[in-house]
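Many introductory courses stop at the sequence. We go one step further.
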Amino acid sequence: MGAAAPAQQLSGRQGHYSVEIQVPVSAQRAWAVLSRYEAMAGVMPDIRRARVVRRRGHQLELAHTYQAPYTFGLPIQARLLLEETPPLQLRYRLLSGERIRSLEGRWSITPNGSGITLQHQIQIDPELPAVLRPLYFELSEANLLQSMRVLRQLMLQR
């Protein structure tokens, strides 16, 4: 691929999105990166803090602080419930959060002939005035694409 940007596909609108990217790594390598929850703080473009609050087997509660252009620079606190199915799937949903009505999603790692397809499906409904929602969604879309590029780079590092 050289210096060219990785091919990505983003579909959806208004807080319902699916984005995917191809990565030439094993599912185990992709999972190892995706499941380093606390290490993503400061690495992912919108995660300022991440802390595993509790874990029971493949279910965990994660406290996040988001801060990005789509949060209009404000730190936003959220607690998520994650359900892992290693090394192929991670589901999450909002337990509590500031300025977020609802949030749920799924990460999928699908092996293919040359590595994996990493897919992120997300549904989010921010608690915002109607006038700010179009800008919020535009900024969220840019963040989703940037996040996938960062994850791809992390997965390719050895």
